[in-house]
Amino acid sequence: MSAGQPPFDSPEIRRLSPVIGPGHTYGSVTDKISAIVLTRPTSLGWYVGFLIAFSVMGMMTVAIAWLVIKGTGIWGINIPIGWGFAIVNFVWWIGIGHAGTLISAILFLLNQKWRTSINRFAEAMTLFAVACAGIFPLIHTGRPWLAFYMMPYPSTMGIWPQFRSPLIWDVFAVSTYGTVSLMFWFVGLIPDLATLRDRSIRKPLKIIYGMLSLGWRGSGRHWHRYQSAYLLLAGLATPLVLSVHTVVSFDFAIAIVPGWHTTIFPPYFVAGAIYSGFAMVLTIAIPLRKAYALEDFITMRHLDNMAKVMLATGLIVAYGYFFEFFLSLYSGNKFDVFLVQQRLHGPYAPFYFALILSNILVPQLLWSYKVRHNVVVLFLMSIVVNIGMWLERFVIVVISLTRDFVPSAWGRYSPTFWDWATFIGTMGMFVTLLFLFVRVLPAISIAEMRELVAETSEEEK
Amino acid sequence: MDGMREREQHEHIVGRHDHNHPAGDGKLQDGPMDLAAVRAKLESKTGKQYWRTLEELAGDPQFEELLHREFPRQAPSDWDNSVDRRDFLKLMAASLALAGLSGCGRTPEQYLVPYVKQPDGLTLGRPQFYATAMPFGADAIGLLVESHEGRPTKIEGNPDHPSSLGATNVFAQASVLNLYDPDRAQTVTKFGEIQTWSLFVESAQALAAGMKGDGGARFRILSGIVTSPTLAGQIQSLLTTFPKAKWHQWEPAVGDGTREGAKLAFGSYLNTVYRPEKADVILALDSDFLGSGPGHIPYAKKFSRRRKLNGPDDTMNRLYAVEPTPSVTGATADHRWPLRASEVELFARALAAKLGLGGSVTLAAGAEKWLDTVAKDLQKHKGVSLVVAGEQQPAEVHALAHAINAALGNVGTTLYYTEPVEAHPVNHLESLAELCADIEAGKVETLLILGGNPVYTAPHDFDFAAKIAFDKTKQKKVKTTIHVSSHFDETSELCDWHVAESHYLETWGDARAFDGTVGVIQPLIAPLYHTHSLRAALAAFSDQPGVSDYDVVRANSEAMGQRLSPMSSPEPGSFERFWRKSLHDGVVAGSAFAPLKATLKFSPASLPTPKPAPANEMEFIFRPDPCVYDGRFANNGWLQELPKPVTKLTWDNAAMISPKTAENLKVAHNVAWRGGEHGKVYSNVIDIALSNSKVTAAAWIVPGQADDTVVLPLGYGRKRAGYTGTNKGFNAYAVRTSGALWAAFAPSSAIRKTGQEYPLACTQYHFNMEGRQILATGTLEEYLKNPNFANEHAELPPQELSLYNGEAEFPYHRDKWAMAIDLNKCNGCNACVVACQSENNIPVVGKEQVMRGREMHWIRIDRYYQKSVKSPTNDPSSYDESLFNPPTFFQPVPCQQCENAPCEQVCPVGATVHSAEGLNDMVYNRCVGTRYCSNNCPYKVRRFNFLRFQDWETPQLKLLRNPEVTVRSRGVMEKCTYCVQRINDARIESEKLNAPIHDGAIVTACEQACPTEAIVFGNANDQDSRVAKLKAQQRNYALLGELNTRPRTTYLAAVRNPNPELESA
Question: Cβ–Cβ contacts within 10 Å for residue A393, how many?
C-alpha cells in the first residue's frame, strides 16, 4: 500500500496490519458503521450500482419466465449432456457460500479475532449465494411446478421421494444449510439491530429495526443468552461447511459417468468450495472497504489472511486434480483413461488448461508477500480464482457428459443466450441483494467490533 | 400366427364400417327441410351398402350441389330482397352446419354417446386388424393395419403376403402418417379454386365426349408404374374407347435398366424373382436388393435366415458387393468393393469374361484381384450362387447378370423369371420423352396425370413445367391438364384441375407384388376429405363415371378368380367365399406368376466395346433417398427425421463424396459446438454445374464411397411439398437430364466450393468404437474356432457378490421379459425405428432440435466402422486409408432394461422403477424432469421432452395416435418400454384364459417390423422361448457388461463370412 515496506518478518508488520485501525473507541466504531446505514446520504454510486444490478436481475426474471413458458429446451442442454449451466452454476454458487460459514462459524470456534470485521458480510454473502444456488435445481427440472415431489410430504398416493438418489440428499443438505445460515446471521445481527433502532431518528426505521431486534436491551442476561445461542449455532453450522458440499459432490460421485464416479470428490469439493468462497469474499471486501472507507476495519491483515487461506485450499484442490488424474490412469479403467485423454486433447481441452492455469498456477503468486499486500492484484486474482472454480464445475459436469460410454451417443454442449441470461442474472441478483444489505444493515458487526476495541486496547496497555 | 398380435376380427365383413359413417345423422338433421329427401334416400339404402353411402351420396350430383350451394333451396332465392336478422341467422346457422361436409373436407367425427348397438365383432377399446396392401413401384407390400374404433393407427406386415412375410419397411410404416398429413389436398380444385366432384365428372364427361370424334388422338394419360390389375384394366378399357389415346408412364426413381436388361437378354420384358435363401454365394452389382426395390423385404428375410448361427454346425452364405456408395446391402456384405457406378459395367463384363462368356476387359489392379476371387467363388458354387444387378444400373449390366446367372446354372434355383409384374412395361424415359415431344408438337389436348409429380421429377431438359404451364403470352400447349395426387404439389400448381387423391387406406384397389401375387387393397376408413382414387378419376372419363371402386375391384377379382380356378358352373356363393378369403388373407390365393422358361438370346461378347469412362472426370450419380424416396415422402415428418442408414443425416440430403475426393476438393466438416457429434455438423457448400444447370448442395463425406463419385440423392429441395417437406435439402432433379439419368460426367471443375457452410443434422457423427467392445464382431472362422469370442475379453463383474444374502439376482417368479438382437442379421434398414415411432406416439422434433441432439427415437441404429483408427475427432474429412472401404456394422439400441439400472437409483422422485417382470418402467406422471437418469444411463437411450414436442392441436394427428400409449408432455423423460402396452394386452388375455403367455404372443413393434428377424422378444424364464435360446448362445453378450448393469437386452455378435483368399491379401 504505502511506499517503503518494512522487511517481511519485522514485528512491525503485525502492528502495521492490525485487525482494527488504531485510535478507535466504542463510539467511533459505532458511529462509523451505523452511519453507512443511518446518516450518510445514499451516494449516487449506490443508486447507479443498484440500478445496474437490479436490471441484470430483471434479465434473470425474464429468462426464468421464458423458461417456464417454453421449457428447459431454451437452454443448450441435450442428450447426452442433460446437465449444463444450471448445475454448474448451482455448484459454483453453493461453493461460494461456504466461505461465509467457515469465517463466521469455524473461525469463531477457533477464536480467530480477525474474522470479526468480515464475518457479517461473509455470512450475508453465504445467504445470497445459497439463494442464487437454490434457484437452479428448481428451474432446471422439466416441470418446476412439480418440484415439491422431492419433499417428503404425506402424499395421498403414499409416494415418498426416492431416498437413494443424491438429489434428495441435496434437497435436505441445501435447505438445512440455508436455514442454519439464515438463523446464524440473524442471531448475530440482533445487538446491531438494537443499535440501529436506538440511533435511528425516523419513526418508521425505529419501528422496523425495533421489531427486528426482538426487544434487545443489552442486559447482561441478554448478552449471556446471545453468546450461548451464537456459540450453539456456530457449532451447528460447522459440520454443514463440510457436509453440504460433500453431499453436492455425491450428485456426481454416486453416478457412473466417467469423470464423476470418483471417491476423491467430497474433500476436493469442500476445499474447492472454501477456495472459491474466500475468493468471492475478497472480490466483495476489496471494493466495499474502498467505497465506504472501511480500511480501518477491513485491514491488510484480513486480506493477507484470506489470501493465505486461498493459497492453502488452492493447494488442496491442486492435490485433488492431481489425484483425480493419477487415479484415472492408475485404475486402468479404459473409460477413465479415455476421459483423461479427452480433458487433455478433446475438443474442450482449452477449458481444462484454463482451469489449471487459473486454479493452480496463478494462485501460486500468493506465496509472495508483495502480491498478498497488493490490493489490486489480490482483487484480480480473486476474480481469476472465481472463474477457475466455475470452469472446474464446467469441466466436471459438462465435459464428462459429452463423451461417456457409447461413442455413437457422444455430443457437445454450448450454452444459449438464455443460459447466459440466467447465469449473469443470478449474479445481478447477488449484487442487488448485497447492495440492499450494505444499505440497510450494518455490513460489519458493530457489537463484535466494540468487543475487539476493548480487547485490543487492553492488549496495548 | 407367427407371433402376430391376436388377429381377432381379422376377417373383413363388408358391412363392418357402419360406425364410421352414420351418414351424418347428427349433421344432416340440423339442415333445413330440403334435406328430408336426402335422408329418405339414405334410409332407402340397404344395410350392406350402407357404409358406402356417404361416398355415393357425395358423388351424387344433386346432393353435392345441395351442399355446395351457399344456401339451401328454401333460402330466399332473391338475395337482394330484404332479409331480416332472424332469417339471416338461420341461414348462417344452416350453412355453418353444412360447412363440415362441404368445402375443406370433413372434420373428424366425434360422438358423445357410445354405440347404441355395438357393431358386430367390435369391442370398444380393442383394436382390429385388416389386411390391405401398399402399392409401391413395381411391388406392393401386404399389410395388416391396426384400427382403433375405425381409425387406422399402425401398419404391420402381413405374414401371408409374399412381399411382406410379416415384416415391413420404413415407407410402409410411415405411410399411415401420410394418411393424416394435414397438408394433404382435400378437395377438387380448378385453377386453385374449390370445385365439386360432380363438376369435375361433368367436365371429364364433356372432354370425353369431345374426344370421341378423333378416337382420343389428343388424349394422353401419364402414370407411374401400375401393377394394379384393376387400374390397368380401366386404363386399357379407356384406351379401347379412345383407340388413339396414349398411356405414358414415368417412375423417376426406378431405372429402365431392369426392364431393358431383360429385353436385351431375353427379347422381351421379364420379371426376375430371386431366391436368396437358396444361394450360398451372392454378388450384388450395385444392387441394394436387401434395402430397396421390389421384394427387398422378403429378400432380406430369406437372406438373413441363411446367416443364422445357432451352433458350430451352421454355415453362412457369403455376399459380395460392388457399389459406388455404401448401401444397406453393401454394409451387410462380407466383402465390399467401392467402384464408380460406371465401372460396375466393366466389372460385370470382366466377370463374364472370367467365367468364359466372352469379351475381355481389364480392371484396375485392386479390383482385378477382388474379381478373381469372386469369380472363383461363384464358379465353385454353380447352381447355388446368385448375381443381382442394381435398379440404377444400365440394361447391359442386367443382361450380363442374366447371362452370368444362366452360365452358373442359377436360373430355376436361386432365381426364376416370370411375366412382368407391371401391367404395361415400357421404357419410361422413352415414354416420357414421347409425351413431351407430342406436347411440343401440339398433339396433346387433354393430359390426365395419375399420381406422380412430373414437374418436379422429370429430367430438367424436358422442362415439363413449360409443357403444361401458361407461357408468357398466356398460351398453353395442353388445353386441359388434370392432376390426381395426394398433395397440391409442383405439378398441381400448373395443372388446370387438381383432384385430391385418396390414400391407399381410404380406397378399394388391388396391386401385384414383386412375384405377381395380387393383394386386395381394402380401405380402413372412409376418405377423410373429398378425395378420390385414381380409379375414380379415370372412371370419370369412361362411360361409367359413377362406378364405385369397390364394384370395380370386386368385379375384377371375380374375373381373376375365374381365370385362376376356372369352373364351368360355379356353385352359388363360391365367389363370395373366394372374395372374403382374399380380403381376409390380403392376397388372392394362387395369383403369383408361375416361373417362365426364358431362353437367353444374348452373349456378352456381342456387346459393343464399352465406351471408355471419361478419365479424370467426376461421376455424378442419382439415387433415390433412403428416407423420402423420389420425393413423394418429403412431407412425412417421420421419414424426414429418420437418420439415413449409413450417413445418419436427417432432414436434408447432401452431395456425398469419398474422403479422398473431399481432400482433393478441400471439402471438410466442422462439428458444431451445440449438439456436436450427436446433432450438428457444418459442411462446406458446393456448387455443382452439370448438364447446363446448377445446383447448390451441402457436401457430405462418406467413408467407403468410390473416389471421384458424387452421389446426388433425389427427393429433396421440394418447392411445394407441405409444411414439413418444402425447401429441405437440395433438388438433385435440377441437374438430372434424360441423357444422364443415373450417371453424369463432368470435370472436377464442375464442383466449386462456395465458401459457405451449411448445418446438417447428423445423429451420429462419431463412427469409431474407440477400442471398446460395443459391437462385437468376428469372422466365421473365428466363431467356429471359439464360439465364445464375444465374451472372451469382457471384464464381467462376479455375480455372486451381493449384499442381499447371496441372492445376486431376483428370481422373477412369473415372467422375465428380455430381448436378444442378432447383429449378424441386422442390416440397418430402419424399419424398427419408424415402427417404434408409430406404435409409441413418438413426436417429430424438427431439424433445429435434431441439430441440438434432441431427437426422440426410442430405438436408434448405431453405425460403426471397424478397423478405423481415426480418433478422437473422427472426422472423415481428413483422409485416411482406413476410410477407403471400412467394414460397416449396425447396432440397434433400444433401452437395455437393465437389471441393475443406473437410472433407477438416481431418480429423486421414483419416476423410473423396476417392475415385477423386470421392466424398467417410466412413470410419466411422476417425472419432474431432472434428467439425472439420462446422465447416468451408459447407453444414452433415454429421451427428454425438452420442449413441448407433441402436436396437441392438429386434429388429424389426434386420430393417428395409439390410444394405448400415453402422449407425453414437455419436461418428461421417456424411453423404450419393450412395448409394455402389448405386454399388458397379452397379460390380460392370458389371465382371462388362465394360461401362461406363450412364446411369441407378445411381439414388440420393432421386432414385428424387422425384415431380418434380428430382434427377438420373449420370456427369459421360459427355457423354450426363442429369446432364452438365443441368450444361451455363446455369441450372446451384454453391451457394456463390465458396468454390471446386467441388461435384459443382449446382443449376438456379428459374424462375417469373408473369403479366406481375400482376407489374406
Answer: 25
The confidence score (pLDDT) of residue B874 equals 65
Model's pTM, two decimal places?
A: 0.87
Reported as half-sphere exposure (CB side, CA atoms, 13 A), residue B95 has a value of: 14
The CATH T-level fold of domain B777-867+895-1056 is Alpha-Beta Plaits (3.30.70)
Please list, in sequence order, all residues whose beta carbon lies within 8 angstroms of the beta carbon of residue B510, skipping any fewer than 6 positions away: B133, B228, B229, B230, B518, B519, B520, B521, B553, B556, B557, B588
Cis status of the peptide bond prior to B872, with omega within 30 of 0? yes
Chain B contacts in chain A segment 344-383 (CB below 8 A)? 345-347
Cβ A412–B947 below 8 Å, yes or no?
Answer: no
Q: Which of A80, A167, A338 sits opposite B678 (nearest CB)?
A: A80
> Given 3.40.228.10, 3.40.50.300, 3.40.50.150, 3.40.1190.20, which CATH number is that of B271-418?
3.40.228.10
Beta-carbon separation of A73 and B770 below 8 A: no
Q: How far is CA B700 from CA A265, B652, B686, in A?
A: 43, 11, 10
What's the CATH architecture for B188-254+425-585?
3-Layer(aba) Sandwich (3.40)
C-alpha cell at A106: 469455524
Q: Which residues of A touch B901 (CB under 8 A)?
A: none
Of the CATH numbers 2.40.128.630, 3.40.50.150, 2.40.40.20, 2.60.40.10, which one belongs to the domain with range B617-762?
2.40.40.20
SS3 (DSSP) at B418: strand
- DSSP E strand stretches across B789-899: 817-822, 860-865, 888-893
| Per-residue cell: B313 | 454346425
Q: What residue segments make up the domains of chain B, in order of their start?
A: 23-99, 130-169, 188-254+425-585, 271-418, 617-762, 777-867+895-1056
Question: How far apart (Å, rounded) are the C-alpha atoms in residues A60 and A419?
Answer: 10
pLDDT tens-digit map of B1004-1026 = 999 999 999 999 999 999 999 99
Residues 944-1003 of B with CB under 8 A from A: 944-948, 970-973
B927 touches A at CB < 8 Å: yes
Alpha helices in B153-281 (DSSP H): 170-179, 197-212, 229-241, 257-266
How would you classify residue B648: left for phi > 0, otherwise alpha for psi between -120 and 50, otherwise beta?
A: left
Nearest to A76 among B674, B930, B948 (CB): B674
Query: Which range (A310-314, A351-355, A425-429, B869-873) has the least confidence?
Result: B869-873
pLDDT value for A6? 43
Contacts of A405 in chain B (CB under 8 A): 772, 938-940, 1040, 1043
**Distance from C-alpha of A248 to C-alpha of A130, rounded to nearest angstrom:** 13
Cis amide prior to A80 (ω within 30 degrees): yes
Alpha carbon distance B453, A246 (integer Å)? 65
CA count, 13 A, side-chain hemisphere, A288: 27
User: How far, in Å, are A74, A121, A234, B351 from residue A231 at the CA level?
Assistant: 46, 18, 5, 94
**pLDDT tens digits along A266-306:** 998 999 999 999 999 899 889 988 887 888 788 888 888 88
State how far residue A176 is from chain B, nearest Cα, in angstroms.
18
Q: How many CB atoms lie within 10 A of CB A58?
A: 14
